[in-house]
């Protein structure tokens, strides 16, 4: 693009699944509940690959400020830049950072799997959009007062899952480096299949059938010729029918950008970036388990685990049932919520910490109800949904941890001297985390604790 880009309004959002004309994810999908906030009447378009840059008003070219690069959430199927006021980071850092946010292709437009896509196109193009934006930052952020050598990438939910993908990209050996540090808030990591495994191939075949391309000699060419509206309809139908909203169009192992399952790369301590700050919530899985559906179907925990992870064998399923049957949760719904939260959001944070040699920081956000995305109201000071616990000392202690980390690679270097947070040790050999909670009487609780050994066992 040449000339001047009008940046006085938010860009159009990327095409995404919709229900009854509402933008975003299926109304049955819990990713929509908080993290996919719609701001105004946003238009969806395939021409959507925009990024926003926010700088302090008095910044000068060559200021070399640290850069916070935000990747939005939405289950890889929805979301946009508008919902996340990353200009807040500039103020929260005492005007000490430049913030960038990126939009990327979503749903089947960004994450269509299958052998046909591999042979005739590119896999994981939503991730490649993000990578291209990171390369743009390396080339151009100095013109906005940012330092390309001090980039921290941060995301929440699928945005944090995207961060994890970039941590392991190219086997953890991306060259030249695109960032120095990473922040993950509730990293969304469903099981990552190889691009041509049976389930991704079934997903591709379902798209082909939905768009009436089954009889075509070249199904990929047929899909490319289809109207975008027909593809959106297919995206919506598949996402709505998905088992409790946990697997639709998500990253796959493509053997080029993502060369193997992320856990394999992390187990070898091969990572991009120098260090990590990871936050998870105390009840991540609660929104993702349809209690009515589980109860009415009279599902056992074994049946739930089998549906969530269809590749597990009987022995593995029974082992999981044994682990979650002895942690004090009485009902199948409660146990299913724990399985969902641990396996898809909480354990990936620990896998990543292990990948960095336990040298990063780990925190838990537990302000009731502690469900997925509750922390967003405390990370963005002008987020559309306001904090339920509106305590200034707590909010500052929590939110400024991220800016301290982005600026100094250490959440203990206080941006605000009134920060009530005690010394935050790295996760390290003692598995020390920082708890962010409150007492029943409303007093902030910001204190270290040791990761539950039982949780770490379940993550294995």
UniProtKB/TrEMBL annotation:
<keyword id="KW-0378">Hydrolase</keyword>
<feature type="domain" description="Carboxylesterase type B">
    <location>
        <begin position="2"/>
        <end position="434"/>
    </location>
</feature>
<comment type="similarity">
    <text>Belongs to the type-B carboxylesterase/lipase family.</text>
</comment>
<dbReference type="GO" id="GO:0016787">
    <property type="term" value="F:hydrolase activity"/>
</dbReference>
<protein>
    <recommendedName>
        <fullName>Carboxylic ester hydrolase</fullName>
        <ecNumber>3.1.1.-</ecNumber>
    </recommendedName>
</protein>
<dbReference type="InterPro" id="IPR002018">
    <property type="entry name" value="CarbesteraseB"/>
</dbReference>
<dbReference type="InterPro" id="IPR019826">
    <property type="entry name" value="Carboxylesterase_B_AS"/>
</dbReference>
<dbReference type="Pfam" id="PF00135">
    <property type="entry name" value="COesterase"/>
</dbReference>
<dbReference type="InterPro" id="IPR029058">
    <property type="entry name" value="AB_hydrolase_fold"/>
</dbReference>
<dbReference type="InterPro" id="IPR050309">
    <property type="entry name" value="Type-B_Carboxylest/Lipase"/>
</dbReference>
């Amino acid at each position: 693009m040449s000339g001047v880009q009008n940046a006085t309004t938010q860009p159009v959002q990327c095409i995404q699944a919709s229900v009854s004309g509402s933008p975003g994810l299926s109304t049955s999908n819990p990713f929509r509940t908080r993290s996919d906030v719609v701001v105004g009447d946003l238009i969806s378009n395939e021409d959507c690959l925009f990024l926003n840059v926010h700088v302090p008003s008095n910044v000068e070219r060559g200021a070399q400020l640290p850069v916070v690069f935000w990747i939005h959430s939405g289950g890889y199927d929805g979301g946009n830049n508008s919902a996340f006021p990353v200009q807040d980071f500039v103020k929260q850092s005492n005007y000490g950072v430049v913030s960038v946010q990126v939009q990327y292709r979503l749903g089947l437009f960004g994450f269509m799997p299958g052998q046909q896509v591999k042979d005739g196109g590119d896999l994981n193009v939503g991730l490649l959009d993000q990578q291209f934006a990171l390369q743009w930052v390396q080339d151009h952020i100095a013109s906005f007062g940012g330092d390309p050598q001090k980039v921290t990438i941060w995301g929440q939910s699928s945005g944090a899952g995207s961060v994890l993908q970039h941590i392991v990209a190219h086997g953890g050996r991306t060259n030249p480096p695109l960032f120095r540090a990473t922040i993950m808030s509730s990293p969304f990591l469903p099981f990552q299949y190889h691009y041509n495994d049976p389930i991704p191939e079934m997903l591709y075949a379902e798209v082909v059938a939905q768009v009436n391309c089954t009889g075509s000699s070249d199904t990929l060419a047929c899909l490319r010729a289809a109207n975008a509206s027909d593809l959106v309809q297919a995206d919506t139908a598949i996402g709505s029918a998905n088992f409790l909203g946990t697997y639709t169009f998500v990253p796959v192992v493509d053997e080029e950008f993502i060369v193997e399952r992320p856990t394999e790369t992390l187990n070898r301590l091969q990572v991009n970036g120098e260090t990590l700050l990871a936050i998870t919530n105390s009840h991540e899985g609660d929104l993702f388990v349809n209690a009515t559906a589980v109860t009415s179907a009279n599902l056992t925990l074994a049946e739930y685990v089998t549906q969530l992870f269809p590749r597990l064998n009987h022995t593995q399923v029974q082992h999981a049932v044994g682990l979650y049957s002895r942690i004090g949760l009485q009902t199948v719904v409660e146990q299913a919520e724990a399985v969902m939260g641990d396996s898809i959001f909480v354990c990936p944070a620990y896998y990543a910490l292990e990948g960095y040699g336990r040298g990063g920081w780990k925190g838990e956000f537990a302000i009731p109800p502690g469900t997925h995305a509750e922390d967003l109201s405390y990370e963005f000071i002008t987020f559309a949904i306001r904090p339920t616990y509106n305590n200034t000392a707590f909010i500052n202690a929590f939110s400024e941890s991220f800016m301290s980390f982005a600026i100094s690679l250490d959440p203990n270097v206080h941006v605000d001297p009134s920060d009530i947070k005690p010394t935050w040790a790295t996760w390290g050999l003692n598995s020390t985390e920082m708890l962010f909670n409150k007492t029943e009487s409303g007093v902030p609780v910001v204190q270290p604790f040791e990761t539950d050994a039982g949780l770490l066992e379940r993550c294995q």
